[in-house]
Amino acid sequence: MIDLYTWGTPNGRKVSIMLEEIGLDYTVHPINIMKDEQFTPDFLEISPNNKIPAIVDQDNGLSLMESGAILVYLAEKTGKLMTADQRWQIHEWLMFQMGGFGPMLGQAHHFLHFNKDASEYAANRYRVESQRLYSVLDDRLEQNRFVAGDYSIADIALWPWASRFEWQEIDLNEYENVKRWYLEIAERPAVQRGYKVPSDMGDIPVP
Ligand SMILES: N[C@@H](CCC(=O)N[C@@H](CS)C(=O)NCC(=O)O)C(=O)O
Q1: How far is the CA of 10 from the centre of ligand 1 (A)?
Q2: Helix locations, the chain, DSSP H
Q3: Any idea what DSSP says for residue 35?
Q4: Structural domains of the chain, ranges and CATH numbers in brackets
Q5: Residues 134, 181: Cα–Cα separation, whole Å
Q6: N or C: which end of the chain has fewer CB within 10 A?
């Protein structure tokens, strides 16, 4: 049994989608980051950086923050979604997500969606960087059905960020390989269930 501390954001959805894919039992603990619940002392014990997602594995008492580490942990625990022969490609694209296609798109959400008029410089910087990152992903998916061989934790890490394409001023029709990949993954029942954790905040956007 896994305790999942999460909210309806791309980083949170990575883990709920993963748990749905691998079929482990889990209990959801919503942490409403709009109400600053990530700053409570109890949550800090589990997630020292005050961010969702985090898990506690009741089988062994392990508590983990950082979505990338959680995905690797759950893949190794179950032997699913990280095959040995694709291990390094999976890590490569997982780190691409954790270091770029996540932090940069998160900044795009701030400067293109929430505070559009705050800074023309910042809006432009994150608009251009978002487009560049989508081009990198599009090139990778031109020759590959998924980013690293079979469907894996690397796709699970990337996909929820792509699902916020509207906030990033990205037209997925301009990235035909990303669009094909995005729509295929959106059809997966586990993705549809995981997207609605901890609550239904609307349907998966369709380009
Ligand atoms: N690198 C972290 C980032 C986690 C993160 O940024 N979580 C956001 C939601 S997507 C959060 O908890 N924000 C609340 C805050 O910054 O106070 C991970 O991948 O788990």
Answers
A1: 9
A2: 10-22, 41-46, 67-78, 87-99, 103-108, 120-143, 153-162, 176-186, 189-195
A3: G
A4: 2-81 (3.40.30.10), 84-188 (1.20.1050.10)
A5: 12
A6: N
Residues sharing a CB contact under 8 Å with residue 42, sequence separation 6 or more, in sequence order = none
Alpha-carbon distances, residue 164 vs 40, 64, 130, 136 (angstroms) = 28, 25, 11, 17
Does residue 191 contact residue 183 with C-beta atoms inside 8 Å? Answer: no
pTM: 0.98
H helix or E strand, kind and range, residue 56: strand 54-57
Give the span between the Cα atoms of 52 and 40, in whole angstroms: 12
Give the whole-angstrom CA distance, residue 163 versus residue 180. Answer: 13
Measured in angstroms, how far is the CA atom of residue 51 from the centroid of ligand 1?
A: 4
- pLDDT tens digits for 72-120? 999 999 999 999 999 999 999 999 999 999 999 999 999 999 999 999 9
Give the whole-angstrom CA distance, residue 186 versus residue 58: 30
Nearest protein Cα to ligand 1, atom 2:
66
Tokens representing 152?
Answer: 């894996």
Q: Check pocket membership of 67 for ligand 1, CB cut-off 6 A.
A: yes
